[in-house]
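Entry for the shared binder. Reason: the reviewer on the internal report wants the predicted structure included alongside the sequence.
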Amino acid sequence: MHKKRNIILISSCTIIFLLLTFLSQETTPPPPNTQAVIEAISGTYTNPRQHFSFQYGSQYQVRELINRNQGGIVEDETVIIEPRDTRGGDGAQIAITPFFEDDVVLTKERIQRDIPDMHIENAHTVSIEGVEAIAFSSNNSDFGGVSKEVWLVHNNFLFQISAYSSSTALLNNILTTWKFQ
């Protein structure tokens, strides 16, 4: 009889414990995901050759493609910002090439004079760190047809910042955190 009462008591305690554990898990809300907000601005890219930097989300990675001449001098370079999970249709790139003209203000007409086949829509002027730039939509085939573009000239280099049209948040983050050193 003593044994039977102990088994009933232990079984009852076990059931109550499991019930309380189950109920406490369902009623406790999950903690807020504050880490995602911190990670969204956690990456900083710095270019030591052109002396600029910008921030990008931790879901992206940055690669550099540098083209050097026979003497080892950088002729042009491309900075690629792409998703870590390699899904298509997201990302941006910055093509940097020498541009030896003084006091150039890029306009739709100027770009189309140099690249007549380029489709430019919704062109408007923006300022990046005090440097006048032109922002527009285009038909960049590297970005699935429709792309967002921001082009500027700084220290005798042309910066062509291009992004998928679906990557507006990434492009805005790059532009608002861009710094020339």
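Summary line for the report: The radius of gyration is 27 Å.
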